[in-house]
Amino acid sequence: MENSTAFHIGQIAGAIIAVFMMISLCVFFVIALVRAITTGRKGWIIAASIFSLPFLAFLFLIIVGMVMGFSKAVNRSSEMTAARRGKPSEFLQAAMTPVSGNALSYQISLPSSEVRGKNDSHPPFDYLFSYRDAYVGVIAEGIGLGTAQKICDLSQTNLASKASSFVTTTPVVLDIDSHSWLTYDATATLTGVEIKYRFYVYADSNCTIQVITWTGPMLFDHYAPIFDRIAKSFKLPK
Question: What is the pTM of this model?
Answer without folding.
Answer: 0.65
